[in-house]
Amino acid sequence: MTLVLDIHRRGPVCVVQFENADELHCTRSFAQRIRIGRGQQIEPALLERLRETAGIELGLDLARRRLAHGLHSRSELNQRLLAAGVPRAAAAAALDQLEELHELDDATSALALARLNLRERDADWPAYRTRCGRRLQRRGFAAPEIAKALSAAWSEANQPPTD
Questions:
Q1: Whose CA is closest to 54, among 12, 81, 9, 90?
Q2: Which of 6, 39, 96, 105 has its CA 20 to 30 A from that of 66?
Q3: Mean pLDDT, the chain, whole residue set
Q4: What pLDDT, in 10s, does the model give residues 61-94?
Q5: DSSP code for 119
Q6: Residue 125 contacts by C-beta under 8 Å, 6 or more apart in sequence?
C-alpha cells in the first residue's frame, strides 16, 4: 500500500505526492472523481491503473487547451505534454485519440500556417518556401507535410481570379 502525502493544484493539473517520493499527475476533475485525499492508502495495482487513465485524460485536457489557442503540430504538442509530466505512452495515446477525432491534423495545420505566412510573403517562391518552410520545421511538422502545404498555399495565392 502506498500512502498519499499531499495533493498540489498547479493550474489545470493536480500533482498527488506519495510517501515513496512518487507522483501522479492528473486533472483536477480526475482527482475529484476518484476521491483521492491525504492519508489515503492505495494499492500498487490500483495506482498503476490510475496512472494509465490519469495520464491519457491529462494529455487530452492539456492538448485541447493548447489547441484552443492556435495551431500546433503533433510533435509540438507531444513535447509540451512530456514537459508537463504526462508519461510518454499516455501522451501518444492522447494525441492518437485527438487525431481519430479529427481535432489534430498536421497536414491541415501546416496548410493553415502556410496560408497565414502568405500575408507577409516574399516576392518569389524560393524565398517564401525557405522562410515559411523553416518556420514550419521549427514547429515540428514533417518535411512531406511542409512541402505539400507550401506548394498548395502558394498555388492558391497565385491563381488568376475567376469571374
A1: 90
A2: 6
A3: 89
A4: 999 999 999 999 999 999 999 998 888 999 999 9
A5: G
A6: 154
Single pTM value for the model = 0.80
| Distance, first Cα to last Cα, the chain | 74
Range 50-59 burial, b when 16+ CB lie within 10 A, else e: bbeebbbbbb
C-alpha cell at 133: 518552410
76 Cβ contact list (under 8 Å, min separation 6): 139, 140
For residues 24 and 16, give the distance between their C-alpha atoms in angstroms, rounded to a whole number.
Answer: 5
Q: What is the pLDDT of residue 85?
A: 83
Q: What is the tens place of the pLDDT at every residue in 30-68? A: 888 888 888 888 888 888 888 888 989 999 999 999 999
> Grid coordinates in use for 81?
505534454
Q: Which of 37, 48, 47, 44 is nearest to 14 (CA)?
A: 37
The whole-angstrom separation of Cα 32 and Cα 125 is 54
Residue 27 φ/ψ, nearest 5 degrees: -80, 160
